[in-house]
Known about the structure:
10 helices
Amino acid sequence: MKEISFFKYILNKNLSIGEIKHQNSSNNKLLFTKFNNIFVYPKLWTVITRDLYIFNDFERYLSQYKHHKEIILNQNEIIQKIQSVSQIKGSYFLFGAEGNYWHFLIDFLPRLSCLKYISEKNIKVLISDNLPEKFLNFIRIVCNEMSIKEINFFKINQEKLIYNFESLTFTSRPSVNFASTFLLEVFKKNLVKNKIRNLYVKRGNAIRRRVLNENKLIKFIKGYNYEIIDCFELSIEEQIKLFTEAKNIIIPSGASMANLIFAPDNTKVIEIRSNLDGNFSKNINLKNRLSLYMFDKTIKVGPELRKDIIVDIDELKKTIEEKKIY
């Protein structure tokens, strides 16, 4: 099994590719193509061609390391399975998705825009069979806003090693810019931005990067008239509404930062960071429209690669008062 540039592969095979542009920008587009007789490795939502290539620059939303570990190192088992797996007939669209909110909102949901450009009748949309119900409901809401009245899902098990599809359309990974433009366009009639709330977004029962002194932090932050919200307990529509009404946000680094797309311009945001948190908040702060402050005065705790944290509340107080984030 080999990795190859998607564009080199389709050039060699003389395959066609479609393009969806937003705002007539070459940097704000989504590409899509259709393959016949192709395999899907559902754990990573990666396609594998019948001549055993995987693409290193197209649909993947996880790191090169993940693909090397999960696919290349297990290629003998995968190849053996490929030779015996039965083909699923019909036309399919690879949506995918998983339980992580950031990936769902940024990396997967904008792919639905492709459905407006597919001519096949009765195409089925591939999703995980354990996709959270509120994510599934939101897909339906987005499709309805796009005037796609009927959508047929085909649920597959992400733990199954390999699937073979007769005909499969799949897309490039959306950029944050494309995702933001898509979501704001889809919901433009419903997004009423009104800066009336101070929000603290709980980490709550998160598995990693927990805020170990969060109860104490919440007690402190309420003194600055902050509402405490737990995005895990809210529908996506409720999350969007709250973020459209934010004037100040304090948020530990995590998937809920995807909602910053919906915050009004010039909203002040403090991201409370652990280690290895990456640049997700900076990436979503397109055109620097938010006033973003990176707060790293935390003690990192535990054996996990991504640490739990204890927030230095005195230092946070200084930042809130110096920057007037209240």
